[in-house]
């Protein structure tokens, strides 16, 4: 079965392409290379033994999306990662985020709506919960006003999918994930941000390798045990496997509703300082860091209740924080060597 993976050369997308291959699916990658590199295609090939089909295109171009689905009429599943994803950047440039994250989604759904049946996995985010009122966060937690345009595009995306599913043959699973980190055990693929990293772990590994002078810790005055923000850090391979399990659920018609929602995380919250300490332990490196002001759009704490994914999807995160950081460090060392 051919599965379209949008943003398939990105961090989570590339790992999911590998897991789709492992599960017997035929991945078709679409990416505009705005936040990824064509070299990732070779890196995927080094893991799975061949280069998956690849189309370089911008999903904001409606005609191009239509042509893609005409050319690959046998697409029967879509895993939609393609989106801009930096909270801070979205605050500074909201229109870019609304154009990129909403328009592409609409154009893909318009094509899927023409099919007799279609399976759609949406890359959502725990940002839809805003600052949740209690921890851990369940799927029943109320969706709070978004703290950033990025978070808002994920909320709007979920609403669009839910509305379309009511009047079409599209079945969908919304995967709200927490903070993906780590790299493939082969160290062939991992997180490789363009420019200054927006996420904590690549900033840590780049500081550890000497690429960055020191790490900035955004705020030490949060109402948490050590004053730094708390997140749920999940290994990217665990996350990728969850996308495949979710797709199989739709393909096998095991879904109970046209649209289902699952949290993906470890269920454990770790503060920024705890992540730094864990990295120092696995790498043997002392990490220079400084405390700076809070970042606009950041929340205090977010970690998942994963009971629903564990019990209904039959999926559970396997890797510890230290294992995830060790894989990220192995990847960083390999690409800088």
Tell me what you see in this structure.
- It is built from eleven helices and 14 strands.
- It has helices spanning 11-22, 39-48, 62-71, 87-92, 94-112, 149-166, 200-209, 236-251, 272-283, 307-313, 321-336, and strands at residues 2-6, 26-31, 53-56, 75-80, 118-125, 170-177, 179-181, 215-218, 230-231, 233-235, 259-264, 270-271, 289-292, 301-302.
- It has a seven-stranded parallel beta sheet, with helices on both faces. The protein has a three-stranded mixed beta sheet with strand order 12-9-14.
- The two termini are 38 Å apart.
In short:
The chain contains 11 helices and 14 strands. It is α/β, with parallel strands linked by helices and 337 residues long. The strands form 4 sheets. Strands 3-2-1-4-5-6-11 form a 7-stranded parallel β-sheet, sandwiched between helices. Strands 12-9-14 form a 3-stranded mixed β-sheet. The chain has a two-stranded parallel sheet with strand order 7-10.
């Amino acid at each position: 079965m051919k599965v379209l993976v949008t943003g398939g050369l990105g961090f989570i997308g590339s790992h999911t392409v590998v897991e789709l291959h492992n599960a017997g699916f035929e991945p078709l990658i679409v990416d505009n290379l705005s936040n990824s590199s064509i070299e990732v295609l070779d890196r995927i090939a080094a893991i799975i033994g061949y280069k998956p089909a690849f189309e370089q295109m911008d999903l904001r171009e409606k005609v191009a999306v239509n042509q893609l689905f005409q050319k690959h009429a046998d697409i029967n599943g879509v895993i939609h990662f393609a989106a801009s994803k930096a909270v801070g950047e979205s605050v500074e440039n909201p229109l870019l985020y609304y154009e990129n994250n909403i328009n592409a989604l609409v154009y893909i759904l318009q094509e899927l709506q023409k099919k007799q049946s279609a399976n759609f996995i949406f890359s959502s985010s725990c940002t839809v919960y805003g600052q949740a009122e209690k921890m851990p966060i369940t799927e029943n937690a109320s969706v709070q006003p978004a703290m950033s345009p990025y978070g808002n595009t994920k909320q709007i995306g979920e609403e669009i999918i839910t509305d379309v599913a009511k009047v079409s043959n599209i079945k969908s699973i919304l995967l709200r994930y927490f903070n993906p980190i780590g790299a493939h055990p082969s160290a062939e693929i991992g997180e490789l941000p363009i420019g200054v990293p927006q996420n904590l772990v690549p900033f840590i590994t780049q500081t550890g390798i000497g690429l960055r002078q020191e790490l900035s810790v955004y705020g030490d005055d949060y109402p948490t045990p050590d004053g730094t923000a708390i997140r749920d850090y999940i290994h990217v391979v665990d996350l990728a496997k969850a996308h495949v399990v979710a797709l199989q659920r739709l393909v096998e018609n095991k879904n109970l509703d046209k649209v289902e929602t699952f949290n993906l995380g470890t269920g454990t919250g770790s503060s920024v300082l705890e992540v730094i300490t864990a990295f120092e332990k696995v790498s043997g490196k002392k990490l220079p860091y400084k405390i700076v002001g809070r970042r606009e759009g950041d929340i205090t704490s977010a970690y998942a209740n994963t009971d629903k994914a564990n019990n209904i999807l039959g999926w559970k995160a396997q890797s510890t924080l230290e294992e995830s950081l060790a894989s990220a460090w192995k990847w960083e060392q390999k690409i800088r060597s």
